[in-house]
Amino acid sequence: MAGGAFVDSGVGAKDYPGKLTLYVFLSCVVAATGGLIFGYDIGISGGVTSMDSFLKKFFPSVYDKEQADTETNQYCKFDSQLLTTFTSSLYLAALISSFFAATVTRVFGRKWSMFGGGITFLMGAALNGFAKNVLMLIFGRILLGVGVGFANQSVPVYLSEMAPARLRGMLNIGFQLMITIGILAANLINYGTSKIKGGWGWRVSLALAAVPAGIITIGSLFLPDTPNSLIDRGHDEAARKMLHRIRGTDDIDEEYNDLVAASNDSKLVEHPWSNILRPKYRAQLTMAIMIPFFQQLTGINVIMFYAPVLFKTIGFGSDASLISAVITGLVNVFATLVSVFTVDKFGRRKLFLQGGSQMLVCQIVVGTMIAIKLGTSGEGSFGKTYAGFLVAFICLYVAGFAWSWGPLGWLVPSEIFPLEIRSAGQSINVSVNMLFTFIIAQAFLSMLCHFKFALFYFFGGWVFIMTTFIAFFLPETKNVPIEEMILVWKAHWFWGRYIADSDIHVGKNFEMANSKAKNVDV
Ligand code: BGC
Prior knowledge:
Layout: H1 22-32, H2 34-48, H3 52-58, H4 60-68, H5 81-107, H6 110-129, H7 134-162, H8 168-193, H9 201-207, H10 210-221, H11 227-232, H12 236-247, H13 253-267, H14 272-275, H15 282-297, H16 300-313, H17 318-342, H18 348-374, H19 384-402, H20 405-416, H21 419-451, H22 454-473, H23 485-490, H24 510-517
Helix pairs in contact: 1-7, 1-8, 2-7, 2-8, 2-10, 2-16, 3-4, 5-6, 5-7, 5-21, 6-7, 6-9, 6-10, 7-8, 7-20, 7-21, 8-9, 8-17, 8-20, 15-20, 15-21, 16-17, 17-19, 18-19, 18-22, 20-21
The structure holds beta-D-glucopyranose (BGC).
Main location: membrane
Transmembrane segments: 20-40, 90-109, 130-151, 171-192, 204-223, 287-310, 322-343, 355-374, 386-406, 426-448, 455-474
Organism: Carex littledalei
């Protein structure tokens, strides 16, 4: 692969003994439910803020403006900054809280961050469900955001550490699968509650966030901590027992020794935040910033947040647009399953490259189809068949995201950092993700109004850039033990130069691995 520095899991691909035990599987399923709260929130906000009773109670000025709106330009119909500020305030809270979560995750263990996330989200759900005024509503949203920050910081790391290397992708993607299930559940619930006469449907939608929050809060109490975290916090014997239990074999010495070596390195690092800037972490730091940035620049949340608005723009009625949102929600869940079953076989890079190409083609088609009918004036409408094709291409785009940037945007950053800065690295990933989710949520409506159909070309341009970036700069990480990941970076044509041989203390077979690495397909 030209320039790809494709390291096909030859490096450090030591296969530790052990199998996928039921214990690990169940622990990962429970931890992954942390994704439900994030997904539920993504799915619920758009629907609630389009319910008249909700707007009348909390945002009467927005409601009045909407009623008086006689705009015929389809691109510029729904612009309301106040409302988007409310929706996206959660992402700012999540951004800030993920930095605090980094410390909790490192010092107290992964499970307590998950517990903290669940309980704060629970409080937020209660405040929102019973909200009497805007203050309660906003305070509730901040608590929800703190919950998301903690869960998204700790769950992916937990899953990547718990899983046996050769199944790490599959188990980690459980998190994204739960996100998509949360989104779909929220869309369905909104559909039901919007029909409640009496104007309190929105309360049900908001309060039901307590269900996923309850699941992860209670679930996390039963979770064991990861051996990596136990060793790092000085509980060596407990870590050995845990490794024994989760791998289901007595033959754990090799993996245990690698964890100890990683932990010894980790102890030399007192301040993860200043260390992360050192050249030897340049590759991982770049990925922790670029991957979430690119994930949001795919434009996926335009569909997730604004599907009802978007489908209305395309000319669907109110009900039909909600149903279309449910369709994209279903595609999102099922297409994620594709990555669950292929990510450890085909690898991360193939999914990234295929998914990216598919999204790009769909964005060009969707942009062009809208341009043909609405032009730059935004006046016009779509026939039934035409609109059907448009929805089909939007679904293909969502599918491409759902087996590439969606799951891999959480998997890859959680598996590439060495132990000493893993927690800090993951919180950078979360905060960059939240920052750009916020910016896009905030800017989308006015972008649609100004860019018109070219908005799809705009995101398509980014998808082209990110796919090229992956082709050149991301080495394959499938099947590589998490504490040996440095070998993969060392073997990369570009990043290798930042890592000295003396920086590498893991992998007994490093010499051998290194010589294998020289045979990489570049
Ligand atoms: C992203 C979210 C997005 C969701 C859609 C996640 O991986 O972080 O921003 O809404 O996927 O399924």
